[in-house]
Amino acid sequence: MNTPVLTTNALTKRYGKHTALTEATLDIPAGRIVGLVGPNGAGKSTLLALAAGLIRPSSGHIEVLGRTPAADAKQLARVGFVAQDTPVYANLSVADHLKLGEKLNPTWDKAFAAERITRIGLGLDKKAGRLSGGQKAQLALTIAAAKRPELLIFDEPVAALDPLARRALLQNLMELVADIEVSVILSSHLISDVERVCDHLVILAESRVQVAGEIDDLTADHHRLVGPRGSFTELPNGVELISADHTDRQSTLIVHNTNPGPLDLPGAEPIGLEDMVLTYLHRAEGIAVPTLQEAHA
Q1: Are 142 and 116 in contact (CB under 8 A)?
Q2: pTM for the whole structure
Q3: What confidence tier does 180 reach under pLDDT thresholds 50, 70, 90?
Q4: What is the CA radius of gyration of the chain?
């Protein structure tokens, strides 16, 4: 059985009086491309920085690949991290970056790095400061992958890229996963990108994990119920109300079926990924989440 790529229990990070992450409990299997979704300030970067070992928890517990993050040089070599601004050194050439990567990483795959740089068309002599945003992101991705990690962590890697560069980077990411069999955690606020490349989802909002799991399972287990106002007086055990919207004539519910079998309610229909994510984000912010009882008011 593979060791989970990320395990947390009541993981919390505070900066003074501000809590950036609140009691996050997660168990993410290995071999997944994980989409970490949420608005700015939700705690995504904090969770990824904790996983990379860049910061320490205020309380709670975290393990990456079965060990404490950044516990030693061997653990550091198992994780590749690309920060939000895809950092590269402006005055160094592409070749210099590859030499530096080789010097700093004992597991560096020189042939892999050279082949990938050739494939994406980056000139070895070109200074990183003169690369486009997409090219800088590709260079940072190459450096992170060429150390042959077991886990790649990306903090909003496509946020500043134009649509073509974003699509190219995500395509290359999927190719890398196939080539080197690496797990990936990718934070984004672009649901369409997550839907394109990810198979596991974590929704963060207001510093808390709202829901997590396999995307296919989550979308299959979340349903929309529509009926005359007052027709939904109660829900079966194991069916959680996520959102309720009432008009004078009609009630619309979004529910999460946590039972093992299919949801057996008249008119229930699965909802798409985007609708599901937005419902949780609205609920976290206290927007449009009346109760069942309000349908009878």
Answers
A1: yes
A2: 0.89
A3: confident
A4: 22
